[in-house]
């Protein structure tokens, strides 16, 4: 079992990154590849080593919480690695955990690849296993989990997926002002279940327009 990989990110794509570890490049699928574009220094990627008959794959995460949630999601019937990765691209672990513990099917069915029956299985299988991930977090209307109820909703505009997309775009050299303009131009047409990658593509279209 490969628990983590430490090295420099030498390439990233819409689905994966490549981490150079002593001149060996590990292809690692991750919820938000652009999050690892923030630095040219060595990073630690927490991994899940998935072996099947026709492939050996690595799935990677920025935090232990994401890694743990990914593994919990794989315990649910009907959720494979790709769907679990999509779930974490659509919501932070604490937000997903809070939705499961609150039996918030409306939020869960907005996650990529999750229908009502799968959402119900997630609640049934995981509700009592995620307390460590949720802690005292609550869930806002847009799916953000937070433990400070004094944070005004306007500071959370765009939700988790847009915040991660914004970080990835900033790492590519775009300024906060440019990204804010892109968001205001596209926000009225954004769907609640859009992934980080989809939002990045939308924003890039706006940025290319000038």
TrEMBL record:
<keyword id="KW-0067">ATP-binding</keyword>
<keyword id="KW-0234">DNA repair</keyword>
<dbReference type="InterPro" id="IPR003583">
    <property type="entry name" value="Hlx-hairpin-Hlx_DNA-bd_motif"/>
</dbReference>
<dbReference type="GO" id="GO:0005737">
    <property type="term" value="C:cytoplasm"/>
</dbReference>
<feature type="region of interest" description="Domain III">
    <location>
        <begin position="161"/>
        <end position="210"/>
    </location>
</feature>
<dbReference type="InterPro" id="IPR011114">
    <property type="entry name" value="RuvA_C"/>
</dbReference>
<dbReference type="Pfam" id="PF07499">
    <property type="entry name" value="RuvA_C"/>
</dbReference>
<dbReference type="Pfam" id="PF01330">
    <property type="entry name" value="RuvA_N"/>
</dbReference>
<dbReference type="InterPro" id="IPR013849">
    <property type="entry name" value="DNA_helicase_Holl-junc_RuvA_I"/>
</dbReference>
<protein>
    <recommendedName>
        <fullName>Holliday junction branch migration complex subunit RuvA</fullName>
    </recommendedName>
</protein>
<keyword id="KW-0227">DNA damage</keyword>
<dbReference type="GO" id="GO:0006310">
    <property type="term" value="P:DNA recombination"/>
</dbReference>
<keyword id="KW-0238">DNA-binding</keyword>
<dbReference type="Pfam" id="PF14520">
    <property type="entry name" value="HHH_5"/>
</dbReference>
<keyword id="KW-0233">DNA recombination</keyword>
<keyword id="KW-0963">Cytoplasm</keyword>
<dbReference type="InterPro" id="IPR036267">
    <property type="entry name" value="RuvA_C_sf"/>
</dbReference>
<keyword id="KW-0378">Hydrolase</keyword>
<comment type="subunit">
    <text>Homotetramer. Forms an RuvA(8)-RuvB(12)-Holliday junction (HJ) complex. HJ DNA is sandwiched between 2 RuvA tetramers; dsDNA enters through RuvA and exits via RuvB. An RuvB hexamer assembles on each DNA strand where it exits the tetramer. Each RuvB hexamer is contacted by two RuvA subunits (via domain III) on 2 adjacent RuvB subunits; this complex drives branch migration. In the full resolvosome a probable DNA-RuvA(4)-RuvB(12)-RuvC(2) complex forms which resolves the HJ.</text>
</comment>
<dbReference type="InterPro" id="IPR012340">
    <property type="entry name" value="NA-bd_OB-fold"/>
</dbReference>
<dbReference type="GO" id="GO:0009379">
    <property type="term" value="C:Holliday junction helicase complex"/>
</dbReference>
<dbReference type="GO" id="GO:0009378">
    <property type="term" value="F:four-way junction helicase activity"/>
</dbReference>
<dbReference type="InterPro" id="IPR000085">
    <property type="entry name" value="RuvA"/>
</dbReference>
<dbReference type="InterPro" id="IPR010994">
    <property type="entry name" value="RuvA_2-like"/>
</dbReference>
<dbReference type="GO" id="GO:0048476">
    <property type="term" value="C:Holliday junction resolvase complex"/>
</dbReference>
<comment type="function">
    <text>The RuvA-RuvB-RuvC complex processes Holliday junction (HJ) DNA during genetic recombination and DNA repair, while the RuvA-RuvB complex plays an important role in the rescue of blocked DNA replication forks via replication fork reversal (RFR). RuvA specifically binds to HJ cruciform DNA, conferring on it an open structure. The RuvB hexamer acts as an ATP-dependent pump, pulling dsDNA into and through the RuvAB complex. HJ branch migration allows RuvC to scan DNA until it finds its consensus sequence, where it cleaves and resolves the cruciform DNA.</text>
</comment>
<dbReference type="GO" id="GO:0000400">
    <property type="term" value="F:four-way junction DNA binding"/>
</dbReference>
<keyword id="KW-0547">Nucleotide-binding</keyword>
<comment type="similarity">
    <text>Belongs to the RuvA family.</text>
</comment>
<keyword id="KW-0347">Helicase</keyword>
<dbReference type="GO" id="GO:0005524">
    <property type="term" value="F:ATP binding"/>
</dbReference>
<feature type="domain" description="Helix-hairpin-helix DNA-binding motif class 1">
    <location>
        <begin position="71"/>
        <end position="90"/>
    </location>
</feature>
<feature type="domain" description="Helix-hairpin-helix DNA-binding motif class 1">
    <location>
        <begin position="106"/>
        <end position="125"/>
    </location>
</feature>
<dbReference type="GO" id="GO:0006281">
    <property type="term" value="P:DNA repair"/>
</dbReference>
């Amino acid at each position: 079992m490969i628990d983590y990989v430490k090295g420099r990110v030498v390439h990233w794509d819409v689905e994966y990154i490549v981490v150079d570890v002593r001149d060996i490049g590990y292809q690692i699928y991750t919820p938000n590849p652009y999050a690892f574009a923030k630095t040219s220094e060595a990073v630690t990627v927490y991994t899940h080593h998935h072996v099947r008959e026709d492939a050996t794959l690595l799935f990677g995460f920025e935090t232990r919480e994401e890694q743990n949630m990914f593994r919990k999601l794989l315990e649910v019937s009907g959720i494979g690695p790709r769907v679990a990765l999509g779930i974490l691209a659509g919501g932070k672990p604490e937000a997903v955990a809070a939705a499961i513990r609150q039996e918030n099917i409306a939020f869960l069915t907005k996650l990529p690849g999750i229908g009502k029956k799968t959402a119900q299985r997630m609640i049934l299988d995981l509700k009592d296993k995620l307390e460590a991930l949720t802690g005292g977090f609550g869930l806002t209307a847009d799916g953000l989990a937070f433990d400070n109820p004094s944070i005004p909703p306007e500071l959370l505009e765009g939700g988790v997926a847009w915040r991660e997309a914004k970080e990835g775009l900033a790492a590519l050299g775009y300024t906060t002002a440019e990204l804010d303009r892109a968001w205001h131009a596209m926000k009225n047409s954004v769907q609640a279940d859009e992934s980080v990658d989809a939002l990045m593509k939308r924003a890039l279209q706006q940025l290319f327009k000038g």
